[in-house]
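Ticket #258: bound-state structure for NAP.
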Amino acid sequence: MIDLAGKTAVVTGGSRGIGRAAALTLAAAGARVVVADRSDHRAPAETSTSGEIVRRGGSASSVPLDVTDPDAVSSTFAAIEAEHGIDVLVNNAGVLVSGSLTDTSDEDWHRQMRVNVDGTFYCMRAAVSAMLAAGRPGKVVNVASISGLRANPGFSAYCTSKFAMIGMTRQAGIDYAAHGINVNAVAPGFVETDMTAIYDAPVRRALEGQTPNGRWASPQQIADTILYLSSSLSDHVVGEVVAVDGGWLVATPVQVGA
Ligand code: NAP
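RESOLUTION: The complex was predicted; output attached.
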């Protein structure tokens, strides 16, 4: 049983999708959760992630944060650290820009990098600095992607950003391991969220057909691995990337003669 009582977890992009499931799951394990993104603080308590956690008997708040703004990240994390102390950071906020390299504008390229790469860097730097200054162990879970481990046709900027997140995870993993700060990543395959709503039904069926277990994940299935990487069960796991992808990275099913 995972018990995060007394721990504070910051989840970026926790308003919906994987981030919302992670926030609810960490709170159910006893953590105080701070949802840091652009919209949860504006949503009514009946629908916000922090409101749902409180309704279920947990402890949560929402703070406005655009992860692409380094000053905002710095001041927001300083305020959370001063109030609670940060034990867990889930770097989940992300966007997906589609297009091959030659179809990608400068603006789209930089938007992709600003959120997925710069945002992850700013938040990780702020949280790990706070943990180091306090002499406190901690956990960082970066929500990467199978697109950070294997090329994905038509998603050049996105894949580049996720490969970078995995590089950051591996590097920070070894740099801070001796301080008891574990930095790891989860690499989801296709997950049922707003982000994958870009795929129409035939494409979705084709993608499911290329997945060994034949299914997309629920956000909860990703959150379960985030919970593990946020807990003492993963204390000896350093700079790792855990794929939660129905077998996508292991092999693509091929039906001979079909
Ligand atoms: P989603 O439903 O589109 O949610 C994205 C979240 O990120 C939202 O909460 C959004 O906040 C937040 N966000 C975006 N830009 C932000 C910014 N600049 N500052 C703060 N928050 C920001 O996406 P999802 O599918 O749950 O994806 C979550 C993570 O998983 C992403 O990093 C994504 O790349 C990764 N992932 C997803 C899949 C998949 O199949 N869905 C697969 C692999 C990896 P707002 O509500 O304010 O827009």
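RESOLUTION NOTES: The chain has seven helices and seven strands.
TICKET STATUS: resolved
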